[in-house]
Amino acid sequence: MLIFLDLETTGLESGDKICSIGIIGVFGDEATPIYELVNEGKKIPPKASSINHITNEMLKDKPPLKESKAWKFLHEHNQEDVTLIAHNINFDLKMLESAGFVWHGKTVDTLRVTKHLMPECEGFSLQFLRYELKLYRDEQKEALKYALQERGLMPHNALSDALHVKLLYECLAQIKEHDILVELSQKNVLMQKFDFGKYSGRYIEEISMCDRGYLEWMLVNIVDLDEDLKYTLKRYLHG
Question: For 2-184, which CATH class?
Protein backbone atom coordinates (compact mmCIF):
# COMPACT_ATOMS: atom_id res chain seq x y z
CA MET A 1 0.00 0.00 0.00
CA LEU A 2 1.12 3.55 -0.78
CA ILE A 3 0.03 6.58 1.25
CA PHE A 4 0.60 10.00 -0.28
CA LEU A 5 0.67 12.71 2.37
CA ASP A 6 0.79 16.46 2.74
CA LEU A 7 0.52 18.60 5.86
CA GLU A 8 -0.16 22.27 6.35
CA THR A 9 1.04 23.85 9.57
CA THR A 10 0.65 27.00 11.64
CA GLY A 11 4.26 27.89 10.82
CA LEU A 12 7.75 26.46 10.62
CA GLU A 13 9.02 27.06 14.15
CA SER A 14 9.52 24.29 16.71
CA GLY A 15 6.27 25.08 18.55
CA ASP A 16 4.06 25.13 15.47
CA LYS A 17 1.36 22.53 14.85
CA ILE A 18 -0.45 20.71 12.06
CA CYS A 19 -3.61 22.50 10.96
CA SER A 20 -4.52 20.52 7.84
CA ILE A 21 -3.80 17.04 6.50
CA GLY A 22 -4.33 15.51 3.09
CA ILE A 23 -4.00 11.79 2.37
CA ILE A 24 -4.44 9.60 -0.69
CA GLY A 25 -4.14 5.95 0.26
CA VAL A 26 -3.69 3.61 -2.70
CA PHE A 27 -4.08 -0.15 -2.52
CA GLY A 28 -4.28 -1.81 -5.92
CA ASP A 29 -7.08 -0.13 -7.84
CA GLU A 30 -8.67 1.28 -4.70
CA ALA A 31 -7.92 4.77 -3.43
CA THR A 32 -8.95 6.52 -0.21
CA PRO A 33 -8.75 10.34 -0.19
CA ILE A 34 -8.93 12.18 3.15
CA TYR A 35 -8.83 15.93 3.69
CA GLU A 36 -9.27 17.48 7.13
CA LEU A 37 -8.72 20.67 9.04
CA VAL A 38 -7.59 20.01 12.61
CA ASN A 39 -7.28 22.20 15.67
CA GLU A 40 -4.18 21.55 17.77
CA GLY A 41 -4.68 24.63 19.95
CA LYS A 42 -2.16 26.81 18.12
CA LYS A 43 -3.34 30.00 16.44
CA ILE A 44 -2.43 30.59 12.81
CA PRO A 45 -0.56 33.86 12.22
CA PRO A 46 -1.41 35.94 9.13
CA LYS A 47 1.83 34.91 7.42
CA ALA A 48 0.85 31.23 7.50
CA SER A 49 -2.72 32.01 6.46
CA SER A 50 -1.41 33.92 3.45
CA ILE A 51 0.23 30.70 2.27
CA ASN A 52 -2.24 27.95 3.15
CA HIS A 53 -5.43 30.09 3.14
CA ILE A 54 -6.53 28.58 6.46
CA THR A 55 -7.83 30.95 9.13
CA ASN A 56 -8.45 30.62 12.85
CA GLU A 57 -12.18 30.93 12.18
CA MET A 58 -12.02 27.88 9.94
CA LEU A 59 -10.40 25.83 12.72
CA LYS A 60 -12.63 27.00 15.54
CA ASP A 61 -14.87 23.91 15.74
CA LYS A 62 -12.49 21.37 14.21
CA PRO A 63 -11.29 18.32 16.18
CA PRO A 64 -7.71 17.78 17.32
CA LEU A 65 -5.54 15.61 15.08
CA LYS A 66 -5.90 12.53 17.30
CA GLU A 67 -9.68 12.58 16.78
CA SER A 68 -9.48 12.93 12.99
CA LYS A 69 -10.15 10.33 10.30
CA ALA A 70 -6.64 10.91 8.98
CA TRP A 71 -5.08 9.97 12.33
CA LYS A 72 -7.14 6.78 12.48
CA PHE A 73 -6.22 5.91 8.88
CA LEU A 74 -2.50 6.39 9.50
CA HIS A 75 -2.65 4.26 12.67
CA GLU A 76 -4.51 1.46 10.89
CA HIS A 77 -1.88 1.32 8.16
CA ASN A 78 1.24 1.98 10.22
CA GLN A 79 2.92 -1.22 9.05
CA GLU A 80 6.33 -2.20 7.72
CA ASP A 81 5.01 -3.11 4.27
CA VAL A 82 3.24 0.26 3.76
CA THR A 83 5.10 3.20 2.21
CA LEU A 84 4.45 6.79 3.25
CA ILE A 85 5.30 9.24 0.46
CA ALA A 86 5.70 13.01 0.78
CA HIS A 87 7.72 15.94 -0.57
CA ASN A 88 10.34 16.74 2.09
CA ILE A 89 9.07 13.87 4.21
CA ASN A 90 11.38 14.54 7.15
CA PHE A 91 9.41 17.70 7.88
CA ASP A 92 6.12 15.78 7.83
CA LEU A 93 7.49 13.00 10.03
CA LYS A 94 8.80 15.56 12.50
CA MET A 95 5.42 17.30 12.68
CA LEU A 96 3.60 13.98 13.13
CA GLU A 97 6.03 12.95 15.86
CA SER A 98 5.43 16.23 17.69
CA ALA A 99 1.74 15.27 17.67
CA GLY A 100 2.51 11.83 19.12
CA PHE A 101 2.57 9.70 15.96
CA VAL A 102 5.65 7.70 14.91
CA TRP A 103 5.66 6.07 11.48
CA HIS A 104 7.00 2.47 11.32
CA GLY A 105 6.67 1.73 7.62
CA LYS A 106 8.81 2.59 4.61
CA THR A 107 9.17 6.12 3.29
CA VAL A 108 9.79 7.83 -0.03
CA ASP A 109 10.85 11.48 -0.11
CA THR A 110 9.96 12.77 -3.58
CA LEU A 111 12.04 15.90 -2.94
CA ARG A 112 15.26 14.02 -2.24
CA VAL A 113 14.65 11.41 -4.95
CA THR A 114 14.09 14.14 -7.56
CA LYS A 115 17.39 15.74 -6.52
CA HIS A 116 19.11 12.38 -7.03
CA LEU A 117 17.54 11.55 -10.38
CA MET A 118 17.18 15.04 -11.90
CA PRO A 119 20.12 17.06 -10.50
CA GLU A 120 20.04 19.63 -13.28
CA CYS A 121 16.53 20.88 -12.39
CA GLU A 122 16.49 24.62 -11.70
CA GLY A 123 14.22 24.09 -8.68
CA PHE A 124 12.77 21.28 -6.60
CA SER A 125 9.66 22.70 -4.97
CA LEU A 126 6.51 20.68 -5.59
CA GLN A 127 4.89 23.50 -7.56
CA PHE A 128 8.00 24.05 -9.70
CA LEU A 129 8.12 20.34 -10.55
CA ARG A 130 4.39 20.39 -11.30
CA TYR A 131 5.19 22.57 -14.31
CA GLU A 132 8.76 21.48 -15.08
CA LEU A 133 7.67 17.84 -15.43
CA LYS A 134 4.25 18.73 -16.89
CA LEU A 135 2.39 16.92 -14.11
CA TYR A 136 -0.51 19.29 -14.77
CA ARG A 137 -1.37 17.30 -17.90
CA ASP A 138 -2.89 14.53 -15.76
CA GLU A 139 -4.04 16.49 -12.73
CA GLN A 140 -7.61 17.23 -13.82
CA LYS A 141 -8.30 13.58 -14.59
CA GLU A 142 -6.78 12.55 -11.26
CA ALA A 143 -8.59 15.31 -9.37
CA LEU A 144 -11.96 13.92 -10.42
CA LYS A 145 -11.13 10.70 -8.58
CA TYR A 146 -10.62 12.47 -5.27
CA ALA A 147 -13.38 15.11 -5.30
CA LEU A 148 -10.77 17.82 -5.74
CA GLN A 149 -12.99 19.60 -8.21
CA GLU A 150 -14.85 20.91 -5.16
CA ARG A 151 -11.74 22.56 -3.72
CA GLY A 152 -9.67 23.21 -6.82
CA LEU A 153 -6.04 22.39 -7.44
CA MET A 154 -4.73 25.04 -5.09
CA PRO A 155 -1.08 25.11 -3.98
CA HIS A 156 -0.77 24.49 -0.22
CA ASN A 157 -4.13 22.78 -0.05
CA ALA A 158 -3.11 19.54 1.66
CA LEU A 159 -5.15 17.19 -0.55
CA SER A 160 -4.20 19.02 -3.73
CA ASP A 161 -0.51 18.80 -2.78
CA ALA A 162 -0.90 15.11 -1.87
CA LEU A 163 -2.27 14.59 -5.40
CA HIS A 164 0.78 16.28 -6.91
CA VAL A 165 3.05 14.15 -4.71
CA LYS A 166 1.29 11.12 -6.21
CA LEU A 167 1.81 12.39 -9.77
CA LEU A 168 5.47 13.17 -9.05
CA TYR A 169 6.01 9.73 -7.50
CA GLU A 170 4.52 8.07 -10.58
CA CYS A 171 6.90 10.08 -12.76
CA LEU A 172 9.91 9.02 -10.65
CA ALA A 173 8.71 5.40 -10.63
CA GLN A 174 9.09 5.37 -14.40
CA ILE A 175 12.81 6.01 -13.92
CA LYS A 176 13.58 3.73 -10.97
CA GLU A 177 11.60 0.95 -9.29
CA HIS A 178 9.94 1.50 -5.94
CA ASP A 179 12.60 -0.18 -3.80
CA ILE A 180 15.29 2.04 -5.33
CA LEU A 181 13.20 5.14 -4.57
CA VAL A 182 13.00 3.99 -0.95
CA GLU A 183 16.80 3.57 -0.85
CA LEU A 184 17.49 6.94 -2.46
CA SER A 185 15.22 8.62 0.09
CA GLN A 186 17.72 7.65 2.80
CA LYS A 187 20.83 8.85 0.92
CA ASN A 188 22.16 12.39 1.10
CA VAL A 189 22.27 14.25 -2.20
CA LEU A 190 25.43 15.89 -3.52
CA MET A 191 23.72 18.95 -4.97
CA GLN A 192 24.92 20.61 -8.16
CA LYS A 193 23.78 24.24 -7.99
CA PHE A 194 22.59 26.90 -5.59
CA ASP A 195 18.89 27.69 -6.01
CA PHE A 196 18.92 30.82 -3.83
CA GLY A 197 21.19 33.64 -2.69
CA LYS A 198 23.78 35.65 -4.56
CA TYR A 199 25.09 32.58 -6.38
CA SER A 200 21.70 31.23 -7.44
CA GLY A 201 22.11 29.08 -10.56
CA ARG A 202 25.88 28.74 -10.11
CA TYR A 203 27.62 25.39 -9.55
CA ILE A 204 28.48 24.82 -5.89
CA GLU A 205 31.80 23.20 -6.78
CA GLU A 206 32.77 26.35 -8.68
CA ILE A 207 31.90 28.59 -5.71
CA SER A 208 33.88 26.32 -3.36
CA MET A 209 36.98 27.25 -5.37
CA CYS A 210 36.38 30.99 -5.87
CA ASP A 211 34.54 31.93 -2.65
CA ARG A 212 35.20 29.27 -0.04
CA GLY A 213 34.38 31.72 2.74
CA TYR A 214 30.79 32.01 1.57
CA LEU A 215 30.23 28.27 1.99
CA GLU A 216 31.83 28.38 5.45
CA TRP A 217 29.60 31.33 6.38
CA MET A 218 26.49 29.42 5.30
CA LEU A 219 27.35 26.42 7.47
CA VAL A 220 27.84 28.59 10.54
CA ASN A 221 25.06 31.15 10.14
CA ILE A 222 22.07 29.50 8.42
CA VAL A 223 20.31 27.60 11.22
CA ASP A 224 17.66 25.81 9.13
CA LEU A 225 19.98 24.85 6.27
CA ASP A 226 18.63 22.02 4.13
CA GLU A 227 20.38 18.79 5.21
CA ASP A 228 21.38 17.88 1.65
CA LEU A 229 22.86 21.33 1.07
CA LYS A 230 24.69 21.05 4.40
CA TYR A 231 26.06 17.66 3.30
CA THR A 232 27.11 19.14 -0.06
CA LEU A 233 28.89 22.14 1.46
CA LYS A 234 30.83 19.91 3.85
CA ARG A 235 31.84 17.59 1.00
CA TYR A 236 33.21 20.44 -1.11
CA LEU A 237 34.90 22.11 1.84
CA HIS A 238 36.38 19.10 3.58
CA GLY A 239 36.21 16.27 1.02
Answer: alpha beta
Write the single-letter amino acid at 121. Answer: C
Q: 200-211 burial string, b = 16+ CB within 10 Å, else e? A: eeeebeebbeee
Position 150 scores a pLDDT of 52
Burial class (CB in 10 A: 0-12, 13-18, 19+), 46: exposed
Q: Per-residue pLDDT tens for 144-164? A: 877 665 556 677 799 999 999
| Pairwise CA distance, residues 159 & 147, whole Å | 10
Q: Are 4 and 24 in contact (CB under 8 A)?
A: yes
Decide if 214 contacts 192 (C-beta within 8 A): no
Domain boundaries in the chain?
Answer: 2-184, 189-239
The pTM (predicted TM-score) of the whole model is 0.90
Could you tell me where the DSSP H helices lie in 53-145?
56-59, 69-76, 89-98, 110-117, 126-132, 136-145
Angle at which helix 158-172 crosses helix 110-117, to 10 degrees, equals 30
> Which residues partner with 83 through β-bridges?
2, 106
